[in-house]
Automatic annotation (TrEMBL):
This is UDP-phosphate glucose phosphotransferase. GO terms for molecular function: phosphotransferase activity, for other substituted phosphate groups. The keyword Ribosomal protein does not apply. Its main location: membrane. Residues 265-449 form the Bacterial sugar transferase domain. The keyword Transmembrane helix applies. It holds the Pfam family Bac_transf. One of its GO terms (cellular component) is membrane. The chain crosses the membrane at residues 38-57, 69-90, 102-125, 271-291.
Length: 456
């Protein structure tokens, strides 16, 4: 709820600072050129690009005021550095440089003040719009505090329990200063005394929940009775209520439905792959010659991999091993000093240049630029019984690079722990995917480079 307010505040701070600093530096309007005007427009747009990259607009409840301030300042200073570099290439940059310095300083102060004010809004206003909603909770095994903790986790502290009804308790108690009662009559009385308008029944899904007595008791009052299903934390995605061919359903374990949101990714993948192949064609040609002369055998190596929803496709890579190194039906991961890898192949694997032909897989629609890395089918059969939710990675298209790879999990995954970590990163990507997250991963892949000690 505070994010739109934050965006509007940031824009006012940045645009206001631009106007004030312009008035300080450009005393005569004739000295303000059209280039200065273009730089000003660019300066209003650039921050909101860097803000996305640095996740400035993550929900405020997940951040402290200090962390939010540091993040917005980092994004602002980075945007201004880019603007200063562009401005330096055009004539008449002396006055413009002073303008940018004043603009940077004034906006930084305004952004800090704006962030602190927005973080203080909920406690300052204390209104229904900002304060957590007050609820009554019906839950079993409430004495250990687990329902409260799970409510806080799954609702991001947007709701505040005021009373809990747990008929399984031997006696009434208090948890985190919240009364927990075992008698329905006491619970009803507290709901009315506290003037609560929400009753939440918290229970694991698919277990019978009796609500008739609550409905009967509160049928003439304007109290909402809702059920909050608590799923296991190990679930790969949070269950959501969706629509399947016009029928409302609870998606417990299903391929993410993103609708039109995925269209920019599909278009971007094809365009990026096409331009990448055109740009690196000389490199591909040179590598193909090097592979051909390194050892007898084909230039390209093809291997069956799983794609979206388990569909099998042939992945393209430059051959890095001697022809026939892998026995049919079995795949052994390359290890450090592996005798099967050619000298040219070692260089290609360590720099990930052997992966470049996969842009053709992207053009064919079998892969994406960003997504979980696909493994050999034989590895899938091995790991799916050892790593929890391993196969959920294939609910979306695999990618050339991914969230796991930029976090250090590329190359060999001989240990189960490494594969588990890679799967966790992949599932995090599936849960939190946005188009701008893809752009961030691509940028980090380029910034960090292709070199890696774990690839050989």
């Amino acid at each position: 709820m505070l994010t739109p307010i934050s965006k509007a505040t940031d824009f006012l701070c940045i645009s206001g600072a631009a106007y004030i600093s312009q008035s300080i530096v450009f005393h005569d309007s004739t000295t303000f050129s059209h280039i200065d005007g273009l730089m000003g427009l660019l300066g209003l747009m650039l921050p909101f690009i860097t803000f996305r990259f640095i996740s400035v607009y993550r929900p405020f409840r997940y951040d402290s005021a200090l962390a939010s301030v540091m993040r917005v300042l980092l994004a602002w200073f980075f945007a201004q550095l880019v603007l200063a570099a562009l401005s330096h290439a055009y004539p008449g940059s002396e006055l413009r440089r002073h303008w940018l310095l004043w603009w940077t300083a004034i906006a930084a102060c305004a952004l800090v003040a704006g962030r602190c004010t927005i973080h203080a809004l909920p406690s300052l206003l204390r209104s229904r719009r900002f304060a957590p909603a007050r609820i009554a909770v019906v839950a079993s095994s409430a004495a250990n505090g687990d329902p409260l903790m799970r409510i806080a986790q799954e609702t991001s502290d947007a709701f505040l329990p005021e009373v809990i009804f747990d008929p399984s308790l031997p006696h009434d108690t208090i948890i985190d200063q919240i009364p927990v009662v075992r008698e329905l009559s006491v619970f009803k009385q507290l709901v009315r005394v506290k003037k609560l308008r929400e009753i939440w029944i918290v229970n694991p899904p698919f277990e019978p929940i009796s609500v008739e007595h609550l409905i009967e008791e509160f049928r003439d009052e304007f109290i909402n009775i809702r059920v909050l299903p608590l799923f296991e934390e190990s679930m790969p995605v949070w269950p959501v209520v969706g629509d399947f061919r016009g029928v409302p359903v609870l998606n417990v374990l299903a391929t993410p439905e993103r609708g039109w949101d995925v269209l920019p990714k599909e278009i971007f993948d094809r365009v990026f792959a096409l331009f990448a192949l055109l740009a690196i064609f000389p490199v591909l040609f040179a590598i193909a010659i090097a592979v051909k002369f390194s050892s007898p055998g084909p230039v390209l190596f093809r291997q069956h991999r799983k794609g979206a929803n388990g569909d099998i496709f042939s992945i393209y890579k430059f051959r890095t091993m001697f022809d026939g190194a892998n026995q049919p039906g079995s795949v052994v991961q390359a290890r450090k000093g592996d005798a099967r890898v050619t000298k040219v192949g070692h260089f290609l694997r360590s720099t990930s240049l052997d992966e470049l032909p996969q842009f053709f897989n992207v053009l064919k629609g079998e892969m994406s630029i960003v997504g979980p890395r696909p493994h050999a089918v034989e590895h899938d059969e091995y790991y799916k019984n050892l790593v929890q939710h391993y196969m959920f990675r294939y609910r979306i298209k695999p990618g050339i690079t991914g969230w796991a790879q930029i976090n250090g999990y590329r190359g060999e995954t001989a240990e189960i722990e490494k594969m588990e970590a890679r799967v966790k990163f992949d599932i995090y990507y599936i849960k939190h995917w946005t188009f701008w997250m893809d752009v961030k991963i691509i940028a980090l892949t380029v910034v960090k480079g292709f070199m890696g000690s774990s690839a050989y």
